Amino acid sequence: MAVNEIIRPGSGVLFMKIGTHANESLADIIARKTREIRDAGFGMWGYGGNTCHPASMVQPFARTFAGRGRTIHLCMEEMNSNHFGEGVAREYSVDGTTWQEIPEAIEVRGSRYALVIEDLHEEKFQLPLDQTRVPVGPSTGRLGSRYIQGRVDKACLEVLEAPELSNDADPRMIGIDMVATLRDPYAVFLRGER
Amino acid sequence: MGLLGWVRDLMSGEDAAEVAPPPKPRPPQERRRVDLRKAINAVSDVVQNRPRPLRVFDQIHMKTGDMVLQSETIADWSDGKRLAFIGDGDAISVCIAYLQARGVLDFGPSQITVFDFDERTVEAVMNFADRERITNLDARLYNVLDAIEPDRPYACFYTNPPWGASNNGESVNVFVQRGIEVTGHVGEGVVVIADDDDLPWPKEVLASVQGFAARHRFYVSRMQRKLHEYHLDDAPELKSCNLYLAALPGNASPGPSLPITDPLRLENFYGLSQPPTVRYVRARKRLDYGVAHEDEYELELLESGRERDH
Lengths: 194, 310
Hints:
The complex is a heterodimer.
Chain A (H helix, E strand, L loop, with lengths): L2 H4 L5 E9 L5 H15 L2 E5 L6 H14 L4 E9 L10 E3 L6 E2 L11 E16 L3 E2 L10 H4 L6 E6 L13 E19 L3
Chain B lengths: L2 H10 L3 E2 L18 H14 L14 H14 L4 E5 L5 H10 L9 E6 L2 H13 L5 E5 L14 E4 L10 H13 L5 E8 L4 H16 L2 E11 L10 E9 L15 H4 L36 H7 L1
């Protein structure tokens, strides 16, 4: 997939920092998740926090961009983490009300939410955060480079025509290591333990 | 003016803009100085009792320091009056009543009623009032889309509604409408909504709400800018203001309160493509209210304890 296809003005990008551990490399993760996608027809990428709530943020964001015929790309930046997710989720729900079993082939650990993904692969490029804007939620209108800081480590973003030039800050690029595409229903709630 | 009033004025600084004098100025009254430690500890008691927020319904809690100042501000504004809360996940209602009951504030509303669709909030208010023997605080399960018909009108209302980022403030207007109705269209209100100089949408929402109030013959009597911060992961810098509304002289009710069913007003109620689908959030009965849930932990016993169990 061409990077130009991802960073295309008007496209939707879900940015996320992902923790990798000494005992599982990026390639290992991709291999494991690719098997899940092959066996179940889709994969689930677990996450937490309130910045990308499935029902109030990711689903409306993704549906809006899908309605415009755009593919929503999940762009992930690798970082070291000491956190090991424990407990494999048993059920998922699109709306938090109706629940169904997670396919046996899929294993999501230690997460309250999950993105529904396919076509996961390694891809390295620079994401220009100054050329993105938050299109949903209470920070609607905020530039991606000002939004992603401190405790905010994931975001729904819209790619702008051009970077916003500013005198008070240097252009902010983030190195992306891995990319997937989101598929309907885009994000789900998780519960239970297998 | 109490210590908190002094702190509040210091914090609000030049941003506290008097748009117009209040409609019925009361004679100046010397307030007893507020014991800040007692006030903070009282609010801490309330926070301990507060149900956890449900983000899907835009329940986002105000930070505790701001709750202390806000409670004193609203107690002062509503002194001696009947005050209705149109939703109150923050528990400002409980803070005000408790600060009065504990003698931290020697002023405040004569009666407080909380109307909220979250049974957890209603029960938390009622349980707290019962435990602390607060007789002028009560709560009712109520969905803001339903008509509101109090037994008798309230003098003023307070609301901190979903902020309407995705619907140009229409969700705020729904709560303001109920607030206006609960006062019989002749009272006053405080609306707590987003206030941010960088983002476009809070400005649009403020304009929309002021326009809505004007169409209902209410005017903006005061605005205290950028006062409160929230436990809001994705917008930690976003603040809110107190927007004071008051009825124009001679205002009258245009008719009975009616359910709100217009899909255009509701389609983005809790955010983009998030119309309301839930009438009430029902509370699951628990015995461990206010302490750690049993499913959060398990006990690993000391060896000696295990031996004794054998």
